Amino acid sequence: MNAPETIFLPDVQSSADTRRLAIQKVGVKGLRYPLHLVSPSGETLNTVASLTMSVGLPPEVKGTHMSRFVELLEGRQGAQTQEGMFRMMEEMLLRLGAESGCIELAFPYFIRKQAPVSGVVSLLDYDATLIIDKRPDEYANLTLRVVAPVTSLCPCSKKISDYGAHNQRSHITLEARLNSPMSIEELVRIAEEEASCEIFGLLKRPDEKWVTERAYDNPKFVEDLVRDIALRLMNEPRIAEWKVISENFESIHNHSAYAELHGCNV
Predict the structure, then answer these.
(1) pLDDT tier at 11 (50, 70, 90 boundaries)?
(2) Alpha helices of the chain — where are they, by DSSP H?
(3) pTM of the predicted protein model
(4) Domain extents in the chain
(5) Which CATH superfamily is domain 25-264 in?
């Protein structure tokens, strides 16, 4: 049997470009892929991540090799860790022959929580994102972002009302560029502890009483939320730079209250 004829296929994207324009980021976006994580307690979490992967392209190169981003994912084994993100970045830059790049994994993350009175256990979902980026002649940086749903209760409403006070569900977004590893759970707890009250997936009647009274005894403006959380982040040595955003979905308005605060610890 004769061997198949070898056909030459030109590599157009590796050809030269004459426009003399470097591209800061080029790659793939919206790529969904299974993701395996391990919680600090050792529990395995299987989720699905939406990935954005990009590299810097030199001015003389026409295009990057898009298939190599997917090849990189196919070569992964085991659970993803923060340390593994740095190895993934190194391999991506090596495969693509690049000096700069960025990998962003956004995924739902589940934390098992215990109700405050009854002790019933349930899962609560959070939006989490791991971002690692590297610029030319710099070390790679890892950023952790979480969105924690909480309860906030209005201090004005409590003060002026003869009974009751309006409260709302709020989304607290924490973003931290890390000096050393920090878990998603730790960042979530900072947001929950500084809210009027945290929320749970499952509550019994005694728990409902507890969370209602807890929020009433701990009223906070949207400004209070970002300031109190900022003080916690400022005193965390594992965080180099941080940002906290609070969006309160008002129960007496058709708009949100919003505040944002950011800073640097180095």
Answers:
(1) confident
(2) 67-74, 82-96, 155-160, 184-194, 205-216, 222-234
(3) 0.90
(4) 25-264
(5) Urate Oxidase; (3.10.270.10)
